[in-house]
Specification:
Length: 223
């Protein structure tokens, strides 16, 4: 299961991430609503956990925009607002569930498990075909002609980023932010090295085009 957490309280967010990573394999964290929408709209997440009062764009607005954009994963809203009217507003904005702060982690885990069961149709295996590749986004596997291509988690994350944004140029800075985070030590050289490895594992075929001076693009056109 892949979870996106949008929470601007760094202390709380780091604790939530640490606890969630003990239970679920992939948890990513952003600190504002604009990043939450960009990440959730551009990548595959089973559950998006949104704080109501996010900077730049509120959790309510993020939820509305995601639903308008066709996001079909589960949305869990976190907030200190416990009034009935607030709960209704959150649910009307597209949230599937609502958890009032402060909360116990066992309750958060229970809500996540319930959302995963409730939205079974959203968590079914999602297959994407690109040229001669078949990518199973939920199982995080890649096959060519029935043969599995072994990718590391970061390599798969990079491929998924390209698949989700095919025919669009992605800058090296954007790749660093998505795969490692802005606070990491990753550089443009790190991105170049991983692209080289990914191309090699994809049998040397140039699925990923270098847009010199700009970034990279996964193109439907043959190169």
């Amino acid at each position: 299961m892949k979870i996106l957490l949008a929470e601007d309280d760094q202390r709380l967010a780091k604790l939530i991430v640490r606890m969630l990573q003990k239970e679920w394999q992939v948890v990513e964290w952003v600190e504002n609503g604009e990043d939450a929408f960009e990440y959730a709209a551009g990548m595959h997440y089973d559950i998006v956990i949104l704080d109501w009062m996010l900077p730049k764009m509120s959790g309510i607005e993020v939820s509305r925009k995601l639903r308008s954009a066709g996001f079909d994963g589960a949305v869990l809203m976190l907030t200190a607002r416990g009034d009935v009217d607030d709960r209704v507003e959150g649910l009307d904005a597209g949230a599937d569930d609502y958890l009032v702060k402060p909360f116990e982690f066992k309750e958060l885990f229970a809500r996540i498990r319930a959302l995963s069961r409730r939205g079974t149709q959203n968590f079914e295996q999602e297959a994407v075909r690109f040229k001669d590749l078949e990518i199973q986004l939920n199982q995080r596997t890649v096959h060519r002609n029935g043969q599995m291509i072994a990718l590391t988690p970061k390599e798969f994350q990079m491929l998924e980023l390209f698949i989700r944004n095919r025919n669009q140029v992605i800058s090296k800075d954007a790749i660093i932010e998505r795969l490692w985070g802005l606070d990491s030590d990753a550089t443009a050289n790190t991105v170049e090295a991983m692209v080289k490895l990914l191309r090699k594992k994809l049998n040397g075929k140039q699925y990923i085009q270098t847009m010199r001076g700009v970034g990279y693009m996964l193109s439907d056109e043959n190169v």
